Here is the input.
Amino acid sequence: MKSAETNALRIYLKPETREIGEVTISGERIMNLFKADTLNIVDYEISGDQIIMIANPYKSLNDQWLYLTSVSGEILTFRKIRTAGHQVEVPESIAINTKLYLFKDCYKNIQLLTKEKVWQIFVDENNL
Here is the structure.
């Protein structure tokens, strides 16, 4: 068996222009996924047939909430994100560019991460 380096293959592409007929672009009306107020979604994770989101109402950028929704857009429950939890040391090698984000570990547990704190998120049926 020969190595790939000794069997170098060069492929040359020749540009070609073709004219096609008329194209009509159309779309459907945008449907709101959530039946509640307009939300700015910061981050989300899918957990089974539910979605866990960090979001805030459209005009309240600093008022962040944790939402649990069905995949069809029904908000099942929500909780205001508070300054609770246990402080952890974040290594300098980890760059956190956003204030909050969600992380799903190898055990499918979802954590809410900030630069200063980490919360484990528990879902019991339709409750956070």
